Amino acid sequence: MANMTLTKTPMPEQDPKVRARNFKEVALGYTPEQAIEEAGRCLKCKNPKCVEGCPVNVRIPEFIAKVQEGDFKAAYEIITSTNALPALSGRVCPQESQCESKCVRGIKGEPVAIGRLERFVADWYRENVNAMPEKVPSNGIKVAVVGSGPAGMTAASDLAKMGYVVTMFEALHTAGGVLVYGIPEFRLPKAIVANEIVKLQAQGVEVMTNMVIGRVLTIDELFEMGYKAVFVGSGAGLPMFMNIPGEALKGVMSANEYLTRTNLMKAYDETADTPVIRSKAVAVVGGGNVAMDAARCAMRLGADNVYVVYRRGEAEMPARAEEKHHAKEEGIEFKTLCNPIEIIGDENGRVCGMKCIRMELGEPDASGRRRPIEVPDSEFMLEVDTVVMSLGTSPNPLIRSTTPGLETNRKGCLIVNENEMTTRDGVFAGGDAVTGAATVILAMGAGKKGAAAIDAYLKK
Amino acid sequence: MYKIVRKKELNSAVTLMDIEAPFIAKKAQAGQFIIFRIDDKGERVPLTIAGYDREKGTVTIIFQKVGFSTIALGNLNEGDYIQDFVGPLGKPTPVAGKKKVCVVGGGVGCAIALPSARAFKEAGADVTVIVGFRNKDIVILEEEFAAVADRLILMTDDGSYGQHGLVTQPLKEMLENGETFDEVLAIGPIPMMKFVSLTTKPFGVHTSVSLNPIMVDGTGMCGGCRVTVGGEVKFACVDGPEFDGHQVDFAELMSRNGSYRDREAEVTETHACRMEAMGKALIK
User: Fold this and answer.
1) Given Cys at both, which of A135, B5, B86, B223 links A239, Cβ 3.0 to 4.6 Å?
2) Which residue stretches of A274-383 are H helix?
3) What's the rounded mean pLDDT across residues A167-185?
4) B-chain residues within 8 Å CB-CB of A260?
5) What is the mean predicted confidence (pLDDT) over A154-162?
6) Cβ of B263 and A275 within 8 Å?
């Protein structure tokens, strides 16, 4: 008999007041008992809609059935038959708009906590088994993967499983891409990402850090070196700014810079050499998940006041509900329907305030969201010493500008056909480099499709 | 890990190192830079490439021990390893089609002016080099410049060696005497690059400057290195590091470079201020 409780089994979390000042993980994960209890809520539908909602088609009811039986190892094997990185997706996937949005239990009450269960299984396996994947016999065919974020990691893993000799190139000094430089420790512990990289290496993937493809080697040179196909998962790393007065002041930076200093360079750790501004009051401009990450980092770095400044309303914010909820719990103040028009500096060129204007929502625009319109004469000053611009990113031009024949759309995103192949023969691409800034799981799905497409291409 | 295969002290504050980095050595060109990180706790520090040996697979860096990381790097020795060394980053110095150029180097900036001067020479240009130092004790690379330059002018601020004065003096004299250049490339402290640009502007001589803003990743990701050039925001790491000196907002660059000043050695600032004052006096 299924557990007919209407709500999800709650997951323990650090107390908001405590966690707002540390970088340890916020959500603590289910205990085996809690996982078994939650697994009981799944109705094991014959025609599971949840699987359709998953970009990598995790066999959800099957793994949940194993959790309910207490056979967590079997559950792990079911998940990893289609999803190489469950410890990551279990944490950072927007389940509420994917698998969980299709769950029949969600019609009356809350859906099954699929994400929490996936995370539980992955963590249980890492803590209790953590067997390294087997290296399959090599077919001797070399494939290059450019970028070691979620798209690249998934493509590399799948290709290695098929026997290809895979080299994964990373521009930074640590592999993991956005999982390492962008998403903070308190949402995704870096040790978990590092463990996934070690697993890739156990599968025979060669991981080369400090390799900026496009500069140190071009795509053409990779082919000259004997690689028979290339998967480009270089992400969307170029930050946007608002082009308002004062953006060059000291104390204004992109969310990428703020997060990279804090996460990749570990600036929150006093023993790390990289500095980060220790602010009193921070305005984060933008309403996405990255904005929430930046705001929550600012709080943890010791700011007294942290504001999220967003030109539309809270309902229109692209950030996940859970992220908004966590941010508010931690004391972050949302200044919605509010847009910066100028950043003000002191005599030393440091930020001392941000002039904003109130907004109201008008008719829907091309994106279908109601267009924000300035309210006349409603300017006001926000007293801040740091402004973090979290307005989105666009793909890095390094690869497209150094690879003849590689075509992009007007936003700079690589153009791919239905087989994930770019306009260059043998060059495939996926993730944010193709879609523009999107989610970790979509990038993982693209990596998976890319690996399958490369296999089909090389077998032709 | 990247091995230090040669270390040479050029003067009390400036060190040369050859680093084993075969991929970078194969690709590096004058004007590009690398980023190093000493160890797991280290920061990422950009340094413009001072030379490379494609056969030996080494890249030469020359750096002034001014901050935490450069001092730590200077304390390492031949045979030691550094954790990370990535590059070549940025765009190379465009040398094609330039017939007569003047390369102006200031202090440790001379280290990176040298490969550009050499690249101009190899591309067939007539190369004038003006290098400036505070005093005789810190003169570096004189022989190397002499080997590359068709004409070498060495200046010291205090007159203890070469000619007495700033690099802008001989440059101004040449331009006033009707000499002209297809390109002036200035590499050195910000005030020096600013005053070289101010010197050439009335004569309409195209002038490039190699900028060194604060940087984290060096691949276009953080935007920390943004500079305003001709009213537009550019990222020094991917759009530069060389820009049109007549278009660069030097005041903004100077201010932004002070973002983490509390952690920087005061010595650089003091020197920069003094040069600013001296340059102003000269331009009047």
Assistant:
1) B223
2) 289-300, 321-329
3) 96
4) 216-217, 221-222
5) 96
6) yes
- State yes or no: pLDDT of A35 exceeds 70: yes
Instruction: Indicate whether B279 pLDDT > 70.
Output: no
Model confidence pLDDT, tens digit, residues B44-70: 999 999 999 999 999 999 999 888 889
Tokens of B208: 């490039």
Q: What is the mean pLDDT of chain B?
A: 90
> Per-residue pLDDT averaged across A419-430, rounded?
95
Q: Which two tokens stand for residue B163?
A: 């000619």
Report the alpha-carbon distance of residue A171 to residue B58 in Å, rounded: 20
Within 8 A by CB and 6+ apart from A410, the residues are none
Average pLDDT across chain A, whole number: 94
Judged against a pLDDT cut of 80, whether residue B283 lies above it is answered with no
Alpha carbon distance A173, A152 (integer Å):
16
Confidence of residue B281 (pLDDT cuts 50, 70, 90): low
Instruction: Enumerate the residues of chain A whose CB falls inside 8 A of the CB of residue B83.
Output: 173
Provide the 8-state DSSP code for B97: T
Report CB contact under 8 Å: B23, A261: no
Contacting residues for A358 by C-beta, under 8 A, at least 6 apart: A337, A338, A374, A375, A378, A380
Residues on chain A bordering chain B, Cβ-to-Cβ distance under 8 angstroms: 171-173, 181, 209-212, 215-217, 237-239, 241, 243, 247-251, 253-254, 256-257, 260-261, 265-266, 269, 271-275, 277, 348-349, 396-398
B249 contacts on A by Cβ (under 8 Å): 248
Residue B98 is predicted with a pLDDT of 94
Q: Concatenated DSSP letters for A357-409?
A: EEEEEEEE-TTSSEEEEEPTT--EEE--SEEEE---EE--TTTGGGSTT--B-
In contact, B90 and A218? CB cutoff 8 Å:
no
Give the number of residues written for chain A: 460
Phi/psi class of residue A437: alpha, beta or left (left: φ > 0; alpha: ψ in -120 to 50)? beta
- Are the C-beta atoms of B106 and B167 separated by less than 8 Å? yes
Is the confidence at residue B270, as pLDDT, over 70? no
Q: What is the ipTM of this complex?
A: 0.89
Chain A interface mutation, best of B36, B217, B233, B269, highest count of A Cβ atoms under 10 Å? B217
Helices B266-283, B190-200: axis angle to 10 degrees equals 20
Residues facing B185 on adjacent strands: B103, B208
Rounded to an integer, what distance in angstroms lies between the CA atom of residue A166 and that of residue A141? 8
- Comparing CB atoms, the residue among B43, B87, B223 nearest residue A274 is B43
Mean pLDDT, residues A40-69: 94
The residues near A418 (Cβ < 8 Å, ≥ 6 apart) are none
Three-class DSSP category at A309 = strand
User: Residue A194 has what pLDDT?
Assistant: 96
Confidence of residue B136 (pLDDT cuts 50, 70, 90): very high
- CA-to-CA distance for A414 and A407, rounded, in angstroms? 6
pLDDT above 70 for A116: yes
Give CA–CA dist A339/A354, Å, rounded.
10
Q: Is A390 exposed, middle or buried (0-12, 13-18, 19+ CB in 10 A)?
A: buried
Q: Percent of chain A at pLDDT above 90? A: 84
Contact B19, B47 (CB under 8 A): no
Query: Taking CB atoms and an 8 Å cutoff, what residues of chain B touch A237?
Result: 219-221
**Whole-angstrom distance, CA of residue A198 vs CA of residue B139:** 49
Q: What 3-state DSSP class applies to B128?
A: strand
Are the CB atoms for B135 and B107 separated by under 8 Å? no
How far apart, in whole angstroms, are the C-alpha atoms of residue A260 and residue A178?
9
A233 contacts A430 by C-beta, under 8 angstroms: yes
User: DSSP label at A260?
Assistant: I
Q: Which residue has the higher pLDDT, B133 or A460?
A: B133
Q: Which of A200, A170, A157, A187 is nearest to A88 (CA)?
A: A187
